[in-house]
Automatic annotation (TrEMBL):
Annotated protein name in UniProt: MFS transporter
UniProt keyword annotation of Transmembrane helix present: yes
GO MF: symporter activity
Keywords: Membrane, Transmembrane, Transmembrane helix
Organism this protein belongs to: Nonomuraea turkmeniaca
Residue intervals passing through the bilayer: 17-41, 47-66, 87-105, 111-131, 152-175, 187-207, 238-263, 275-292, 304-321, 327-346, 367-393, 413-437
GO-annotated cellular components: plasma membrane
Amino acid sequence: MIAPVASTLTVSRGVRLGYGVGSFCTATVNAVPGLLLLYYMTNFLAVPAWLAGIVVTAPKVWDLVVNPLVGRWSDRTVSRWGPRRPWLLAGACTLPIAFFLVFAGPPLTGVPAAAYVAVCFLATATAYALFEVPYKAMPGEMTHDYHERTSLLQWRMVFIAAATAVSGVLAPAIATSEGEDGTLGSYRLMAATIAVIMLAAMLGSFFGTARAPMTGAPEADHGGWREQFAAIKGNPAFLWLTVLSCTQMLAVSMMLAAAPYFATYTIGSPQATQTLFAALVGPMLLTMPLWVRLSRRFGKRGAMITGTLLFAGGTTAAMATPLFGALWAHVTIALVGVGYAGLQLLQFSMLADVIAADAARTGKRRAGVLTGLWTAIESGVSSFGALIFGVILTIGGFIESQPSKPVQQPESAVTAVLIGQTTVPALIIFASVLMVLKYRLTPPVVPAPDASA
């Protein structure tokens, strides 16, 4: 039986804000490379599209090793700051530097440039794990209340939306501030700006969660890897959520990688990347309270189905952009934004449910291991979005280039861009609707630990 550290059900507003601000890091470090890195390599460093896709994907395989390790270490950490917060500080001290180096390399092109970016991106993935895994484990340990977790994570999603605006509007604006497509110097300036923002957010989260309640299991799981993996393998709720998240985020990552190409070759304006992201972010900021109410009214499964269908519907409608033009593209992406807001909120709320249910069932603290595995697998699978899109471009005959030597893309490449942005992600996201029906964790099934035990 479990003796909880606290029986607090409600998390204070200060802690919610302190926790939520950390999402400026977790959102930007995924969105900016997902949006700009492939385009940066193919159009500025003359890296072939297939190789650029591998560079974006390969470092993520390292997540399968480092994320569970960091989670395991944080589960077993004993400090006056608690088990998670020391790792938040470690990430804050390393991630901004590594992120800047990804876009600030020496003047290389082709394979040497790809090798440099791959090394820096690997360092970024490692530093990111130090912050991300403990950070995402915290909500499942802050409260026992099923619906309070969704309410707590609403604040996180507001900051994710703001960070998405920074990633999708500010970052491309700085990157293209010198000429229509930008320069290597403008990309360096963008990386430095984003790195400073991430540092401020990470430190804000470290200090802002100083008073966060700890209601999770007080005893860390000291079992070996074999025992822990065996226990996780027997956790169907965790396995289901991991498959669902991987499927949905694979579609999202494809759309992120395709967005600059979609703006340039389908809409006809590289600057449209910024307005497309504004159309995506606006609904995320405005509809978050709605998703919390829908979750309470129809349950997390019902709300997730609604969000998935909205996302898929908007993506499908975007296929008609060549017929209806830029305004149509922005309207459909706004619809995607409404659905994406629900997907993001409910994925993390469901993860917190899985963590709380596991602690209540076993009496062991292994939120870090669960979160580490979940983020590693999700990140690894979703990173294939850029690789798949790179392969689609290659099949379509896309020609890599440098700003000083622009090229005219063949019609087949333009068609490949549209397929990679709309058709393939739509098929993937529609498939996830069937997976949502497997969700079974409801309030009676997610018990609060027995304080009298």
